[in-house]
Design brief:
The protein has 218 residues and is an alpha/beta fold. It has helices at residues 4-8, 16-28, 31-35, 52-58, 73-80, 96-102, 124-134, 152-167, 182-191, and strands at residues 42-46, 65-70, 89-93, 107-113, 135-146, 194-201, 210-217. Strands 3-2-1-4-5-7-6 form a 7-stranded mixed beta sheet, with helices on both faces. α6 packs parallel to α7. The chain starts with a helix and ends with a strand. The model has no long low-confidence stretch (mean pLDDT 95). The protein binds S-adenosylmethionine.
């Protein structure tokens, strides 16, 4: 089991601002809840950002092969210069469609953490279908989003993300910034031929209404 110190160590190579960003990410999102749901040894993180989830999955686990992709070259640059230096990690700047065209049926678990809210909902189906294509038959999808649960948390999360995308430009949107009710996410997963095995609220203890789905490629 990797310690938090060993998970953070790859990011020591980055400037202070980026190191703090990764620490903030690990403190504000329950990424460990995604990591403990990994199945198999060939894993993909779509929209990996700086690679915080990859660090949780790959550090001290040389038996795993981890690929992280993100279309934002700034993000993959930070990821490559940190966790990407681990021998079992590959970071690629590309879209999920491009990877699906090259590596169909490769991965045992695909992770998607806080990416759908940055896409126009019309793009969700092709995105989730590409995730399905990338999985081995019967492979596992672990998806985390923030849900619109009507609470103060979703209003806070929306303003926070608008700040990150439009004002600070730390996060690059692919056409949207918005959260939807859990039922909409459920329907999207089913529409892309995933069997949902678990839906769990992870809002408790956080100021964001995190919701996590574990689903199998039908
Ligand atoms: C909120 S960050 C989450 C990063 C990482 N998944 C994590 O949990 O720390 C959203 C990430 O999604 C990426 N992203 C935006 N549009 C995307 C798309 N169409 N496909 C894949 N990733 C995308 C952004 O570049 C950004 O790195």
């Amino acid at each position: 089991m990797a310690t938090m110190r060993s998970v953070l160590e790859p990011f020591d190579a980055l400037p202070l601002k980026e190191r703090l960003f990764v620490r903030g990410r690990l403190a504000s999102a329950p990424l460990h809840e995604l990591a403990v749901r990994a199945e198999g040894s060939v894993l993909l993180d779509v929209g990996c950002g700086h690679g915080a989830l990859i660090a949780l999955l790959a550090v001290a686990r040389p038996d795993r092969r981890m690929v992280g992709i993100d279309p934002d070259a700034r993000k993959t640059d930070w990821a490559r210069r940190s966790v990407g230096l681990c021998a079992n990690v590959e970071i690629v700047t590309c879209t999920i469609d491009a990877l699906a065209a090259e590596r169909a049926g490769t991965f045992e678990t695909v992770f998607v953490a806080d990416v759908l809210y940055l896409l126009d909902p019309a793009a969700w189906l092709p995105f989730l279908r590409a995730a399905h294509t990338l999985l081995k038959p019967g492979g596992r999808l672990v998806l985390k989003e923030a849900e619109d649960d009507g609470s103060w948390r979703v209003a806070k999360a929306l303003w926070q993300e608008r700040l990150m995308v439009h004002l600070l430009r730390r996060t690059r949107s692919s056409g949207a910034v918005g959260f939807v009710p859990r039922a909409v996410l459920t329907a999207a997963l089913r529409g892309a031929c995933f069997d949902i095995e678990e839906t769990v609220s992870l809002a408790r203890g956080y100021s964001t209404p995190h919701v996590l789905f574990t689903a199998r490629a039908a």
